[in-house]
Amino acid sequence: MSSDPGLREDSQTSGHEARWEQHNSERRSRILRAAVELIEEAPAGTDVSVRQISARAGLAKSVVYRQFEGREDLDRRIRSHLIDDFSRTLEAGLDTSHGSIEEIIARTIRAVADWMADHPRLDEFARTGPTHEGPSDVDAVTSLKLRMSERARDVLTSIADQLGVDTGDGIFDTLPFAVVTMVEGTLTHWVHDVDPTRTREQIVDELTTLTRYVLDGAIRSVGLSVDPRMELTDLIAQLSAR
Fold it and tell me: Which interval of the chain is the signal sequence (predicted)?
């Protein structure tokens, strides 16, 4: 063990800074959770004030302003918090370790439908501006669509690599964003329809079928034919053995 007092002092300073950063991180999370709760509770078209957020978080208003650079920064970080949380749900839906192609598609679309229908105020707020990390001219929902398109493309590329299929820069490059846009646009129309003709389960089933048709066409374009109801892991093993 070193007896150098300078090293001990540096270590103590580093430890103090780490604890302080953790303390600030916990406060920011507390503030963001409070903001999300208030936004969800607020009537449509009603703004949530910093005073309300600080009161719900149990902190002084000045503390909120110290944690963020201003109201715009706070709003951006709230959107990031929303999108990150929702992304984790979608990632679970896209888990290819269990379920058939049809099941994976259905549970992912159902997760989107549930979030949009059950949390309309959060969905509305996410569309009002950018995330903390994203460009200022791209709203949070669009950022999420791009993120999920990239994730879906990674999944398809990974499966293609396992099968030794070269997808090149063709249809598989544009398919993820096209499908994500179709699903999001259709669900947005359905959620805002004052007198919808389809139930939630019906719209999810129809979008699952449409997505399966599009994916099946893309798969056939590279010379493969698959059973969308077969467990995906078994399907990959079967195709790899050919």
Answer: none
